[in-house]
Specification:
Blueprint: E1 5-10, H1 20-28, E2 37-43, H2 46-53, E3 59-65, E4 75-79, H3 99-104, H4 106-109, E5 115-121, H5 134-164
Length: 177
């Protein structure tokens, strides 16, 4: 059986391009993904995301802005490093998303084996406002396709592992949207 996958849209919709992950999650929620994939909009709720990641997900795909010095709208897919526990006194901010803290507490919450991928988009503006900039808005559809490809790869890897272990083949639908 394929391990469960969580696709988490994160970001603050009131800070321009920071709403990118939320918009991608919104579009993916209607994409007809396999039953072993859950899509959720976490916004700025890091504590909620950390607890959900500890709920037996094999892989998490976080969708967010990622400032990496590229042209606005540029997408990157990276496998996130798992930092150690947060420094003493550095706990969750109930009003913000702190990906480093979220990933740092996963071991404490029992999610030590979860693989975390990040689909990031270079923002043009993180100023107050509820609209995505033109280059980031144009990247939303491409990000949806990137997440669908990642899910297909995860499913194909699981099918190969199952067939080589004698568990039988697993049907993995290929999305072409």
């Amino acid at each position: 059986m394929t391990g469960r996958v969580l696709v988490a849209g994160v970001g603050n919709i009131f800070l321009g391009d920071d709403g990118f992950g939320v918009e991608v999650a919104k579009r993916l929620a209607t994409a007809g993904l396999p039953s072993w994939v859950q899509v959720a909009d976490y916004g700025i709720s890091g504590m909620h995301l950390a607890y959900d990641l500890a709920d037996s997900y094999e892989t998490a795909i976080l969708v967010d802005t990622a400032q990496r010095g590229e042209e606005p709208g540029t997408l990157t897919v990276i496998e996130a490093d798992r930092p150690g526990p947060p420094a003493e006194g550095r706990l969750f901010d109930a009003h913000g998303m702190q990906p480093d803290v979220v990933l740092g507490v996963l071991d404490m919450l029992g999610a030590a084996s979860a693989r975390v991928l990040v689909v990031g988009c270079e923002p043009a503006s993180l100023d107050y406002g509820m609209e995505l900039s033109e280059p980031v808005a144009a990247a939303v559809g491409e990000a949806v396709q990137a997440v669908i490809r990642l899910i297909a790869e995860i499913g194909a890897d699981a099918a190969i592992a199952a067939s080589s272990s004698g568990e039988g083949a697993l049907y993995v639908p290929r999305h072409t949207r």
